[in-house]
Write a structure and sequence with these properties.
Number of strands: 15
Strand content: 5-15%
CATH architecture: Alpha-Beta Barrel
Order of helices and strands: EEEEEEHEHEHHHHEEEEEHHEHEHHH
Distance between the termini: 51 Å
Shape: globular
Helix content: 25-40%
Number of domains: 1
CATH class: Alpha Beta
């Protein structure tokens, strides 16, 4: 692997009320580190339970507990802090959020998201920026904060419940920091979202599940600090400031190993975030809010012909297909790639021709099993982002669209069977 290893350490079964047949998860070795699969398998009768309704939250606070007012754009770049970030005006090309008209069928939203967002030697960050542009899509890139912190400055990181300067993943090389900064700026200019994957990627004991609200706040504050002071920390003088203000642009994230959401949701109240993508194992239903922010979980998709449901992330296919080994027998690669594509497309088709609930796909910039999971995502992007009524958007854009819908409309959408196409005139009133 070109990017840091040792990513996953612990997994847990999805916390859902139904169905009761969750088989649970296993702990496994990946890249010589004990890592955790997000995989959740459940026997499927091809019918998801009816979703419960949920309300809409209120307005959010500004970053760091203040009402952050966006400055009036005068066409001039405003350098912020030590010159690591800047304000270059509102992000362009974003989805126009409009409420559904009576009887109108919702768009089919699909969100492709990437954990870590390191621009490594494999140039996968560059590849998916290009894919997004070629297929009129926006994606969410969840940046890991220490990927902008040189290893020589690692002691600037004080992870909760762990020694100063430690991390469960590798620090980036100077060259990778440079290319990551370049790609972050270009991705934002392309209309993509930059979110957070936090910092040290600690899972299991003393990981996110064990962190207090204040410890999560410390992790968030340090994330901002590493991004807003990369010039000071790296000494790079020949790279332009990032073209956006992080405290304004970061509106959500995904916790490592999907752990710790309970206290994380309490922590982010003071940061003005609009969503969290740190839960797992939900059926494909229209989102609800938790603690005032949108909850965007990884989803259970039909797998192996619908006999099972598997989480919508590349790591889970890796776990199920090659027992967590990143280099399984190459002879199996074609079959595994097809299984992965088929599961993603089965999940897509179920809602595209049914409830139109958003589809969430989570990935990593990795070449596990010969890059088959990257190939699978490429095929899915080409297949779905070109279809009628499909909008491949970021989580931030989806949050904005949900915010302007009538609460009664969203409540009705949540009652729909994912696979059953309704009479929209009776749903959207």
């Amino acid at each position: 692997m070109n990017s840091p290893s040792g990513r996953r350490r612990k997994a847990r079964a999805p916390r859902r009320s139904a169905p009761p047949q969750i088989l649970g998860l296993a702990v496994l070795l990946v890249a010589a580190s004990l890592v955790a699969g997000y995989l959740a398998l459940t026997r499927s009768d091809n019918t998801a339970p009816t979703a419960s309704s949920g309300g809409r939250g209120g307005a959010t606070k500004g970053s760091a507990g203040t009402n952050r007012v966006e400055p009036e754009w005068d066409g001039k770049t405003k350098i912020l802090g030590d010159g690591s970030t800047s304000y270059t005006g509102p992000q362009t090309g974003q989805l126009k959020a409009e409420p559904l008209k009576p009887g109108e069928k919702p768009p089919q939203f699909v969100v492709f998201s990437w954990d870590g967002a390191l621009a490594g030697d494999d140039e996968l960050f560059q590849h998916y920026r290009k894919m997004a542009k070629d297929y009129n899509a926006h994606m969410t890139f969840f940046l890991t904060g220490i990927y902008l912190l040189p290893k020589s400055k690692k002691d600037l990181y004080s992870p909760p419940q762990h020694p100063k300067g430690s991390a469960a993943i590798s620090f980036a090389t100077d060259d990778h920091i440079r290319t990551t900064l370049e790609q972050l700026g270009k991705a934002w200019k392309d209309g993509n979202e930059i979110g957070t994957h936090f910092n040290g990627h600690f899972c299991g004991a003393k990981g996110g599940d064990d962190w207090s609200v204040e410890e999560w706040k410390s992790e968030i504050d340090q994330f901002y600090d590493f991004v807003e002071k990369w010039k000071t920390n790296t000494g790079f003088k020949d790279i332009d400031a990032l073209p956006f203000d992080f405290k304004k642009e970061v509106t959500g994230g995904r916790a490592p190993c999907l752990e710790g959401q309970k206290n994380l949701l309490k922590a982010i109240k003071d940061y003005g975030w609009r969503y969290d993508a740190s839960s797992s194992g939900d059926y494909q239903i229209w989102p609800t809010k938790k603690n005032g922010v949108w909850d965007f979980p990884l989803q259970l998709l039909p797998y192996e012909g619908g006999d099972y449901q598997g989480l919508s992330m590349d790591f889970n296919f890796l776990y199920n297909q090659s027992d967590g080994q990143t280099e399984g027998p190459p002879v199996n690669y074609p079959q595994w790639e097809r299984e992965t594509v088929d599961a993603y497309m089965a999940g897509f088709n179920r809602v595209y021709y049914g409830s139109r609930a958003p589809l969430f796909i989570g990935n990593h910039f990795e070449n596990w099993n010969g890059g088959i999971y990257m190939n699978a995502v490429d095929e899915v992007i080409k297949n779905v982002c070109t279809k009628k009524d499909v909008k491949c958007v970021s989580f931030k854009e989806l949050s904005g669209w949900l915010d302007v819908q009538k609460p009664s409309t969203l409540q009705e959408l949540r009652t729909l069977d994912p696979a059953q196409g309704p009479d929209w005139s009776t749903v959207v009133k």
